[in-house]
Amino acid sequence: MKRNGETKRRRNVAEEAEQGGEDPAMWENLDRNFRQVQSVLDRNRSLIQQVNDNHQSKMADNMSKNVALIQELNGNISKVVSMYSDINTKFSSAFHGGNNGHEGGGGGAGTRAN
Fold first, then answer.
1. Rounded distance between C-alpha atoms, residue 41 and residue 81, angstroms
2. Which of 67, 74, 100, 101 has its CA 20 to 30 A from that of 93?
3. How far apart are the first and last CA of the chain?
4. Tens of pLDDT along 14-65?
5. What does the alpha-carbon distance between residue 107 and residue 102 come to, in Å, rounded to a whole number?
6. In this structure, are residues 73 and 44 in contact, taking their beta carbons and an 8 Å threshold?
7. Cβ neighbours, 10 Å, residue 68
8. 89, 108, 110: which is closest to 99 by C-alpha?
9. Is the whole model's pTM more than 0.90, yes or no?
10. 77 contacts: CB under 8 Å, gap ≥ 6
11. Are 28 and 7 contacting, i.e. CB atoms less than 8 angstroms apart?
């Protein structure tokens, strides 16, 4: 797995942020948020594989299980959209003089910090 590389990368990002006068807590928070998103995306990958396996089996019981799996997948997609929206708002707020992204304000979809 990439865990050692991820830990080293996170440490390097925090160290670089400190040296550059940036807020390392903001970058750590951003990293944590992206890891949460990745966790949901990994679950979605697993759900999609289960749906495909059930569909290929052509067994009625497995096909009926797909209803719940697809409902969970749909909910997870909505969750990921919401999580990315929150990340965007926090990141944009932090770069526009906010308080390290802990409050909303600005940062609708497609905005970019200059």
1. 11
2. 74
3. 36
4. 555 555 556 788 889 989 999 999 999 999 999 999 999 999 999 999 999 9
5. 13
6. yes
7. 10
8. 89
9. no
10. 44
11. no
